[in-house]
Amino acid sequence: MLDSSRKCQKEDWGLHKSLCRQSNEEIEQLSQGNPATAQKEKDWLMWIKRGGDLPYVDALRLHEDPGRARTHAIVEESVYTPRGTRD
To answer: From CA 1, how far away is CA 22, in angstroms rounded?
Structure first.
C-alpha cells in the first residue's frame, strides 16, 4: 500500500488543494449544462478518494518502484451504475 509520511503530505497539500478546487469548479460548470455528467464526475472522484486506485498501485508495484507509472499501464472498462449494488 502506498503511504506518505506526514512531511510529504504537508508538502503536497498545496497541489492537492488546487486540484480539488479545480475539480470542484469543473463539476460546477458541468452541472449547469449537463447535470448527469457532473454527477458521474462526482461519483468517480468519491471512488478515487475511497482508495479506488490502490489496487492499481499494488498491481503495478508502484510502492517498490514509482517509475513504473511512466512505463506501465492498466486498462479497465468500467460501467457506471448509479446507486448500483455489488451483486
So the answer is: 27
Ordered by start, the domain boundaries in the chain are: 6-71
**Cα–Cα distance measured from residue 60 to residue 69, given in angstroms and rounded to the nearest whole number:** 8
Task: Give the phi and the psi of residue 42 in degrees, each rounded to 5.
Answer: -60, -45
Report residue 1's pLDDT band, with 50, 70 and 90 as the boundaries: very low
Rounded Cα distance between 9 and 18, Å, is: 14
pTM: 0.48
Which residues, at least 6 apart from 67, have a Cβ–Cβ distance to it below 8 Å?
none
Q: Which residue has the cell 503511504?
A: 3
